[in-house]
What we know:
Layout: E1 12-16, H1 41-52, E2 59-60, E3 70-72, E4 83-86, E5 92-97, E6 101-107, E7 113-118, H2 120-125, H3 127-135, E8 142-146, E9 156-158, H4 159-166, E10 176-178, E11 184-187, H5 189-199, E12 204-207, H6 222-225, E13 231-237
Parallel strand pairs: 2-5, 3-4, 8-12
Antiparallel strand pairs: 1-13, 4-7, 5-13, 6-7, 6-8, 9-11, 10-11
Amino acid sequence: MIQPDWPAPARVKCLMTTRADGVSQAPWTSLNLGDHVGDDPLHVAANRARLRRQLPAGPGWLRQVHSARVIELGREPNPEADASFTRESGQVCAVLTADCLPVLLCDRAGSVVAAAHAGWRGLAGGVLEATVAAMQVPPEGILAWMGAAIGPQAFEVGDEVREAFVAQHPQAAAAFASQPTPGKWLADIYQLARIRLAHAGVQAIHGGGRCTFSEADSFFSYRRDGVTGRMAALIWLE
């Protein structure tokens, strides 16, 4: 487990899982929490039960579709969304990732928390800005923590991805390094997220730097392995 290093209020609790200490067998070894990736459902259930023992309630799992939709936990069953927030104690916001960027957010007063799944499509589509807006607190009072995602030395993308970001924020060009193959770039998803959060008014941005692709012993990576498991990033209020 990873404990975020950020100055969150005392009543804000959060963590990100790694691939260690589960029961799933290869290629999902071992703490796979995704129930949609072909793993044995009994193994997924056992892994989720292990996680549940560290939480005040079952996580509010989402049906993630790389969108910018944000929901308030508890308002609809089995929601299709890529971010959630809550102001209620004991409700656990959660997102699953295996290269995409998980972002956890809270306000300095400890009154609201949120979790967002930011793959490049969701990031370009405004999932972080939508999450900040849904929290309904001044953005300068929001703290953000970025969990493990595919690093800038491994995240190869095409022209269309670069153009999607640069068209909205010209400074995003600095987050792309050209490659020998024409039309290919290495993208820094952490830098792209910092730009988007800053434009939304969030000034306190922490985390970043862990690479799911290169740290095979610690993290699942869809880009690296294809068939693989999912980690969870979770946040709640005591």
